[in-house]
Design goal:
This protein is an alpha+beta fold. It has one domain (about 5-50). Helices cover about 15% and strands about 45% of the residues. The chain has a two-stranded antiparallel sheet with strand order 1-2. The N and C termini lie close together (about 5 Å). The relative contact order is 0.38.
Length: about 60
């Protein structure tokens, strides 16, 4: 059975909580204090960039 290389781009979705009086203030507060706020992570989001069949050094496909 041939072997394939799958290249993906992965990013983590992070959720920060800040206290603010408005959405605009919340954005500004995050930009100023975001790295010190409590952090909650979700699952990793993935998207496939490329798939290609792998071959041996002599050009033969893996079986």
């Amino acid at each position: 059975m041939p072997m394939y290389e799958v290249i993906t781009e992965e990013s983590k979705t992070k959720r920060y909580y800040v206290q603010a009086k408005s959405e605009e203030e919340a954005r500004d507060t995050y930009l100023i204090q975001g790295m010190t706020s409590a952090l909650y992570e979700k699952e990793i989001d993935r998207s496939i960039i490329d798939v290609s069949e792998l071959v041996n050094k002599n050009g033969e496909p893996y079986d």
